[in-house]
Design a protein that fits this description.
alpha/beta; Rossmann fold; 2 domains; six-stranded parallel β-sheet; 10 helices; globular
């Protein structure tokens, strides 16, 4: 039996519609408009594309949006001053500095300079720490998107055996922390596998929910997956070009093989990817409510 497809585009659209309605409610009832600034340093084509998509989505939802473009030659101290300006701006609830930054700028110093209450990416150590103890204000966007995909697909997470392949600070570690919390939509038993894991298949074959963020094309094959598992593929790998000149993409999971064993699976593209920007928007709406003291 072929796996049910977990369509990230559909789920993302559903959440965006909810956020659009909530944004309208905040404006009408409280005169609060969620504010997001995206800071782009230089003209890295991938970064330009990401920031453009974030700005487009925020405007569609009715946010107050600022796109702040800075030259690649900006001094670190000037970038820090810019962040401080937005930290103090009451109209701005979320600050996102698009990575990577030019080599002469210390990325860690820049990320740490963002007010944790405006860190809608969820990367500030204060927010990472709060996630660890189960009191997160903002969840990192990609892991939060994974959790929403699981919940909205009707996956039983409570008590499930979850195996995460990959231990990055952006996906692996935070999704493991999110799903092991004693909370709704979590409370799972979580194992993390990585390049030092001796027998990865031993662990992955035990997973009710398998989340793969290995950064390697087709790293997980059908023989490594338990019959009926739910498989979330976070990877996006370029493996060539189509005859039309478009990039050919594949995930970290061998989709064709694994879909015959899994009960549900995310495609690449169109799975986890669309969720990341959506969760950024969700965090921005939450930040606006926190700043205004709105609890309902």
């Amino acid at each position: 039996m072929t796996a049910k497809l977990i369509n990230g585009n559909e789920v993302a659209q559903q959440i965006r519609e909810e956020l659009k309605q909530e944004t309208a409610r905040l404006k009408e009832k409280y005169n609060v408009i969620p504010g997001l600034v995206t800071i782009l340093v230089g003209e890295n084509p991938a970064s330009v594309s990401y920031v453009t998509a974030k700005q487009k989505t925020s405007k569609e939802l009715g946010f107050y949006s600022i796109q702040d473009n800075q030259p690649a030659t900006i001094k670190e101290e000037d970038l820090l001053k810019l962040i401080d300006k937005y930290n103090k701006d009451p109209k701005i609830h979320g600050i996102l500095v698009q990575l990577p930054l030019p080599k002469h700028i210390n990325e860690t110093k820049i990320l740490y300079a963002i007010d944790p209450k405006k860190d809608v990416d969820g990367f500030h150590p204060v927010n990472v720490g709060k996630l660890m103890i189960g009191e997160a204000d903002y969840l990192p966007c990609t892991p939060a998107g994974i959790q929403q995909l699981l919940i909205r697909a009707g996956t039983k997470i409570d008590g499930a055996e979850v195996v995460v392949v990959g231990r990055s600070n952006i996906v692996g570690k935070p999704i493991a922390n999110i799903l092991l919390q004693k909370q709704k939509g979590a409370n799972a038993t979580v194992t993390i596998c990585h390049t030092g894991t001796k027998d990865m298949a031993f662990h992955t074959k035990r997973a009710d929910i398998l989340i793969v963020a290995a950064g390697k094309p087709k790293a997980v094959t059908a023989d490594m997956v338990k019959q009926g598992a739910v498989v979330i593929d976070v990877g996006v790998n370029r493996i060539g070009m189509t005859p039309e000149g478009k990039a050919k993409l594949c995930g970290d999971v061998d989709f064709e093989g694994v879909k015959e064993k899994a009960s549900a699976i995310t495609p690449v593209p169109g799975g986890v990817g669309p969720m990341t920007i959506t969760m950024l928007m969700m965090n921005t709406v939450k930040a606006a409510k926190v700043h205004a003291g709105i609890t309902s």
